[in-house]
Amino acid sequence: MNSSEKIYSGKTKDLYALANGNILLVFKDDVTGADGIIDPGANTVIGQVEGKGRKSLGMTDYFFKRLHSAGVPTHLVNLDLEKGTMEVRRGEPLGKDINGAGGFEFVCRTRPWGSFIRRYQQYIRDAEQKLDYLVEITVKDDERGDPLINDDSIVTLGLLTPAHLEQAKQLTRHVCRIVEADLSEKGLTLIDMKIEIGLVDGEIVVIDEISADAMRVMDDAGKVLEHSTVYERLVG
Amino acid sequence: MNSSEKIYSGKTKDLYALANGNILLVFKDDVTGADGIIDPGANTVIGQVEGKGRKSLGMTDYFFKRLHSAGVPTHLVNLDLEKGTMEVRRGEPLGKDINGAGGFEFVCRTRPWGSFIRRYQQYIRDAEQKLDYLVEITVKDDERGDPLINDDSIVTLGLLTPAHLEQAKQLTRHVCRIVEADLSEKGLTLIDMKIEIGLVDGEIVVIDEISADAMRVMDDAGKVLEHSTVYERLVG
């Protein structure tokens, strides 16, 4: 990495610009949480867990292979599990503002859970209710608690064209179905997941990572699994 | 009102069931706010302002007449400014849950202001930016701070059909344009407003009230006006 320049240091990854124009993602062992409890949805790094970065990368390798098999494009060029790095095409993450802050997270839900229940409690008849690949889009903004943004705001603020927005939502549902089907083969149930999407070489593609951190998974007894358990069951 | 039964006591209105099947809305002088400061967006009644109920009713009378002239349907049957009451057709407020709680508020914005700026600050280039009748839908839920809900959630939770949702959003924009044009004739600028919508006799119509409380209005010097000033300028 002597010839590369560090361009960003995130909560779980560092980014380097490569001489060939691509980006190198270096996965870190940092974990986020609050009050000493690990929570991938939280915005504060509370410590490190050895091997965590490689596990995230291993999961991403696992799911990106399945996406590619299904013809779903990602930004991946190549991936080095030993080094804990991933080379990706340079692109424009959807929802990034002019200063490079922000960015959208595309959430897909198959049943009500977590913040969705907290927000819409009165409308939820029972926890077993199916949500038919419901998509929500949130803005990455630690200070404001990652606010939800609706389609009208995204288009009116000029953040996405209606066509790209529709493509991104369809891509989110497509990825969710692929991940759900794969988990199902292993006796696991996907509750919800989130991905990031970018415009790479003019195409709407999956970017960043797909790790156990970015999904809630239940076993056949209805128990929500630890991320490390999901990792063991899938990647071993 | 001897022959009528009180069916609901709200923050600013009481509701009575009339013998003819309609509902009587009785406007109250209660005002909401926090820390002693009146804020119509707040959820706690902090006191009373004499004549406030009649002013809200006067504004509603003013705007409902304009909506009716423009062919926009409302639930209004008749209105008594002296008594501070309004008789309306019985209907189903959109977004009410099975227990009668909740209900949607349809917000229409012509420029960024208030919570919209707080949520999407990083995307807003300047305060003069036009928002082209952007619609947001929120759930009336005091405890949860009236959370935003997106179209996908509304449809997936079975709260509205896609057709009714589209009609309701179009109605919201239509009402906003009518109110904006009327204010403009008086040298005033509409920033944003909110309405409630119901399904009455199988039709999507404006319900509840349209008062100064439910809109932000600027004068030609760019100053946001007190609600009582808006009332004086329009109804006198």
UniProtKB/TrEMBL annotation, chains A, B:
<keyword id="KW-0067">ATP-binding</keyword>
<keyword id="KW-0547">Nucleotide-binding</keyword>
<protein>
    <recommendedName>
        <fullName>Phosphoribosylaminoimidazole-succinocarboxamide synthase</fullName>
        <ecNumber>6.3.2.6</ecNumber>
    </recommendedName>
</protein>
<comment type="similarity">
    <text>Belongs to the SAICAR synthetase family.</text>
</comment>
<dbReference type="InterPro" id="IPR028923">
    <property type="entry name" value="SAICAR_synt/ADE2_N"/>
</dbReference>
<comment type="pathway">
    <text>Purine metabolism; IMP biosynthesis via de novo pathway; 5-amino-1-(5-phospho-D-ribosyl)imidazole-4-carboxamide from 5-amino-1-(5-phospho-D-ribosyl)imidazole-4-carboxylate: step 1/2.</text>
</comment>
<dbReference type="InterPro" id="IPR050089">
    <property type="entry name" value="SAICAR_synthetase"/>
</dbReference>
<keyword id="KW-0658">Purine biosynthesis</keyword>
<dbReference type="InterPro" id="IPR018236">
    <property type="entry name" value="SAICAR_synthetase_CS"/>
</dbReference>
<feature type="domain" description="SAICAR synthetase/ADE2 N-terminal">
    <location>
        <begin position="6"/>
        <end position="221"/>
    </location>
</feature>
<dbReference type="Pfam" id="PF01259">
    <property type="entry name" value="SAICAR_synt"/>
</dbReference>
<keyword id="KW-0436">Ligase</keyword>
